[in-house]
Amino acid sequence: MGWCADLGIEVVTLFTLSTGNLTRGRHERLTDFVEELVTGLAASRRFRLRLIGDLQLLPASTQEILAAAMDQPTGPSSTMVNLLICYTGRQDIVAAVRNFLLQPELRTADAERLAHVLNAHEIDRHLSTAGQPEIDLIIRTSGEQRLSGFLTWQAAQAELYFTRRYWPDFRRKDLQRALRDYGQRERRFGA
Questions:
Q1: Does residue 122 lie in a domain region?
Q2: Is the pLDDT of residue 109 over 70?
Q3: Is 191 a residue whose pLDDT tops 60?
Q4: Does 47 reside within a domain?
Q5: pTM for the complete prediction?
Q6: Which end of the chain is more exposed for a tag (fewer CB within 10 A), N or C?
Q7: In a domain, 127, yes or no
Q8: Which among 62, 65, 118, 127 is positioned nearest to 94, based on CA atoms?
Q9: What range defines the domain where residue 2 resides?
């Protein structure tokens, strides 16, 4: 995160823990990792942190640790760090539509009116990342070549960069290589 802040990157999103990770066993190691990551980033006071996902799926003790970390004051950094925890892209879209439909001015609307006012802009305004710029680059570590539900809506126009290096071994040089590769691409935004 420090490397990204040093490079002036304004928003960084880490897919920290999917809901699928919790169902595959050995989730204690993963929740310990999440606790250490969030408390460490919060304690540094270098970033504005945002936890995105269904945190109620985490053990109560982990929820308490994360809440305490998020209560710490943030520093002056302009780097926003989104941490996706117990997250799926589908759940994010469902929550966005649900939040849209629960707006006070729409609670009395009939289904036909809702169908006419619901559009991509309205869904975008209600996503967990509302107000943030679209994703430019997704760096996928570990040699996997899939998105795994990572910001399904928001990743529609993102450029993808794959590396065999695992996340814990990811170095500044790897980030620079990915950014250099991205800088040489001609973005066509779906065209």
A1: no
A2: no
A3: no
A4: yes
A5: 0.72
A6: C
A7: no
A8: 127
A9: 1-86
